[in-house]
Amino acid sequence: MNCWRDPQRILITGASGGIGQALALCYAGPGRTLILHGRDTVKLDAVVRQCLARGASVQTLCFDLSQRSQLGAWQDELAMLGELDLVLVNAGVTGNIGPQAAGEPWPDIERLLDVNLYAAMATVSGVLPSMRTRGGGQIALVSSLSAWYGLPQTPAYCASKAGLKAYGEALRGWLAAESVAVNVVLPGFVATDMSARFPGPRPLLWAPERAARCIARGLARNRARISFPFPLNFGMWWLAVLPAGLSQRILQWLGFGR
Predict the structure, then answer these.
(1) Contact 159, 144 (CB under 8 A)
(2) Domain residues of the chain, as ranges?
(3) What's this model's pTM, rounded to 2 decimal places?
(4) Please, what's the b/e burial string for 89-106 (b: 16 or more CB within 10 A of its CB; e: otherwise)?
(5) pLDDT for 54-94, tens place per residue?
């Protein structure tokens, strides 16, 4: 069942801003039902109004994904949604070592991992049983180009996105025989509030709308990895291939070192 050709019931986490909002508007249209998750109810309500104006049916889920102790309740809530054609696991937070390179406080690292990795995996666990029973569906995990090679300014963020990339690639191999597609999205710098907090250069910055269109095209083709923009994606891949010492010198030369 190739649900990715024309998904009708779509869940998007982190839909209250940035790439999540752009994806919601990209998919909004007559005949489609969007289930939008967000923690900021004011921003989420604004996205809902725009999606309704485009003819979509919309449901909302408000849940703080940083509360790892309550992820079981989140999974139960997802299980009650019924059949989903496409799940975009997009919610994420970022962090950095600070202007004086003092490092990331442990509570900040814990919260980041709770949202970017544990909650993402919990979301997959919540929606997957229904897809496997049905024999169809699609799950997209929004990672980052920094999953290829960690940037010195954001070690915990890079670690969480590398974990999500590996998780998605493993899921794709496991679930392909059951007609459940899994795709890993590897964006570069996108003009969002989260990206604006990155303490370094942001080359080849894309608008969220452009990123959403690129993701939607890649999902419609069931591409294993959806990475952009070129040539930044090509360069980040090379950093993972080259000797680590050389990669570190290249990053410093490009303005990403200390």
Answers:
(1) no
(2) 3-253
(3) 0.94
(4) bbbbbbbbbeeeeeebee
(5) 999 999 998 889 988 899 999 999 988 989 999 999 999 99
